[in-house]
């Protein structure tokens, strides 16, 4: 995996992909990025800052979708420059790939769109690292076909992210076998600790979540051998404009990192023997 500006990858620590769900404005983004970069440097964790420049997949027409594509992308580019940190954002149709690639280091394919061939090919052709989130409707085995599409388009710089599977109408469960299965592709596997705990399809059109279980999913992911974790975080989740119900409060991030690092060190000790 090659990502410009990614530090501490040689430490053997897990990769952290984290940030607010969506770019709400400069203040929240810079506050969050500053703290996360501080923690990444303190504990020598490879870190990629995450935020969506636009949320295309909304339940309701009146749900917040963003502040405007270019203004949001420019804020992400500012984060990359100010903090010397790689940045990731997601795209939703092929036309967005080249635009986003001008501002970020990693392009993410949303879970619902992971089978869209045109989208995968367009992302691949940017030459950026591609993070493909596993669809809530797919097995780990099926993700090899998404990987093959990106490779066939000329890009072998890939990550895969587990984010749970649909369980009934209003819940998700994580099948941790998918981590081992997807690692057989030869590419890093990340586990999304926050979206895995979403509770979609609520009567009011706003997804719920179980953020108190973030640590549980994180511990299990590291223990099974995940290469990294994906965490949406916000200084004040209750005031967040998107996905506040399943984001981790920024002030709780350090405690979680310390616990996951302890587990990672234990896992690394097994592989060294």
Can I get a quick summary?
This protein is of the alpha/beta class. It contains eight helices and 13 strands. It has a single domain, classed as TIM Barrel (Alpha-Beta Barrel).
Describe this structure as you would to a colleague.
This protein is an alpha/beta fold. The chain has one domain (9-272): Aldolase class I (TIM Barrel). The chain is 35% helix and 18% strand. The strands form three sheets. An eight-stranded parallel β-barrel has the order 1-2-3-4-5-6-9-12, surrounded by seven helices. A two-stranded antiparallel sheet has the order 7-8. Helix 4 (117-124) links the parallel strand 4 and strand 5 (129-133). Helix 1 (26-43) runs parallel beside helix 2, helix 4 (117-124) crosses helix 5 (143-152) and helix 7 (214-224) runs parallel beside helix 8 (253-272). The chain is globular and about 45 Å long. The mean pLDDT is 92.
Radius of gyration: 17 Å
Distance between the termini: 25 Å
CATH class designation: Alpha Beta
**CATH topology type:** TIM Barrel
């Amino acid at each position: 995996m090659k990502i410009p500006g990614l530090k501490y990858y040689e430490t053997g620590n897990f990769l952290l992909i984290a940030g607010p769900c969506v770019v709400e404005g400069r203040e929240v983004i810079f506050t969050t990025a500053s703290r996360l970069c501080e923690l990444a440097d303190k504990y020598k964790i490879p870190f990629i800052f995450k935020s969506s420049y636009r949320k295309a997949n909304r339940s309701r027409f009146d749900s917040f979708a963003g502040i405007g594509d270019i203004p949001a992308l420019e804020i992400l580019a500012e984060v990359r420059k100010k903090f010397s940190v790689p940045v990731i954002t997601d795209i939703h149709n092929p036309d967005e790939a080249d635009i986003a690639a001008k501002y970020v280091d990693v392009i993410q394919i949303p879970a619902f769109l992971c089978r869209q061939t045109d989208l995968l090919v367009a992302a691949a052709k940017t030459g950026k690292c591609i993070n493909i989130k596993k669809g809530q409707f797919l097995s780990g085995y099926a993700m090899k076909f998404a990987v093959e599409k990106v490779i066939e388009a000329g890009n072998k710089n890939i990550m895969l992210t587990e984010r749970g599977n649909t369980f009934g109408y209003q819940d998700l469960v994580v099948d941790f076998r998918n981590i081992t299965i997807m690692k057989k592709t030869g590419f890093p596997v990340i586990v999304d600790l926050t979206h895995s705990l979403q509770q979609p399809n609520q009567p009011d059109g706003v997804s719920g979540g179980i953020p108190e279980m973030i640590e549980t999913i994180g511990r299990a992911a590291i223990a099974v051998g995940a290469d990294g974790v994906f965490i949406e975080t916000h200084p004040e989740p209750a005031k967040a404009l998107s996905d506040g119900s399943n984001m981790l409060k920024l002030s709780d991030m350090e405690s979680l990192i310390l616990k996951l690092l302890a587990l990672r060190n234990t896992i690394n000790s097994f592989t060294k023997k």
